[in-house]
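Project standup — Tuesday

K.O.: blocked on the structure for the chain from last sprint. Re-posting the sequence here as requested.
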Amino acid sequence: MSTNKSARSVRNGSRDGADIAVDLFPFLRVYTDGRIKKFVRHATVPASSDVKSPNGVITKDVVIDDDTGVSVRLFVPVASAAAGRRLPLVVYVHGGGFCTGSASDPVFHRYAESLAARAAAVVVSVDYRLAPEHPLPAAYDDAWAALRWAVSRHSDPWVASFADTTCVFLAGESAGANIVHNVAVRVAADAAADSNDGIDIEGMILLQPCFWGTERLPCEKPEAWRATPMLLPERADAMGPYVTAGAAVNDHPWINPPVEAIASLPCRRALVSVATEDLLCDRGRRYAARLRDGAWGGEVTLVESEGEDHCFHLSPKPNPNAVLLMDHVAEFIAKGKTRKLQRQLHRSRWPKEHGPNWSD
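H.V.: unblocked you, prediction finished:
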């Protein structure tokens, strides 16, 4: 009996006899005895509003909701801000399977800092509440609150002084990209109800988005794999029900965005990136195709990173593909500034005798 139990425990990844109840490796595992083992190391990088980072960015943390304790970490590139022009505003939502990570985590801090420096943008990184203690839609609510806070007149002086709230981007990777999509859907719903406080989103940036469903797409079948992906299908199957506390199955609109939700998105442009060795690759491709071929009507850019796995761009190791992806993201944001100037110029040249310029 003890030998069989020991063998089963080793097979299930436990050394003390408990079987795995929910396996969400590489994020966490839940055992039948109630223990939760998180594989992501809990570490933090302190914010620094007085000392610039090596790439010239200052940071600080701001609590935006006293009731929930939700906060954001602000990233401002000093040289760009000192130039006197308003900078694009990027609301960034980190990944981590909805259940790990934070804005102060070294991985996500480093990426947000690099994004602020490379794109010359004010980045608002959302420190949202995590499952299972706070199941979805808590993360959606927190990211929505952060967006509303960032574009309001009552946000932090850094945002008020340096950010252009008429040139707003939503960005995230993996679970963060899922959150970005769902927040954008909420913006659209509020706009339809005339209650979105005038939130205007220029673009969405979805890096290896975490969408799923009950149907297996080609990249999700083992015969298509050149190597075992970081995420596995059975673990992806378990994620939606677990992080929603059973409130959503894998074909729920939160997890598997329907065509009508994608068509409703309020932004003008979208950038979707996929990694060819990622289990979720075809989900991102399908999302981009539905943007391009459906009723949405905006401009979509699909970036494919050959030979890479899920969230490869977050690794601290030098990687030309990560640099290239950041270049795409920075150019996408820069184009928003150009489009804004073009719209302003167009409005200024519109003859008054022609009446309102409805093309805006």
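K.O.: great, moving the ticket to review. The longest strand covers residues 163-173. DSSP finds ten helices and eleven strands in the chain.
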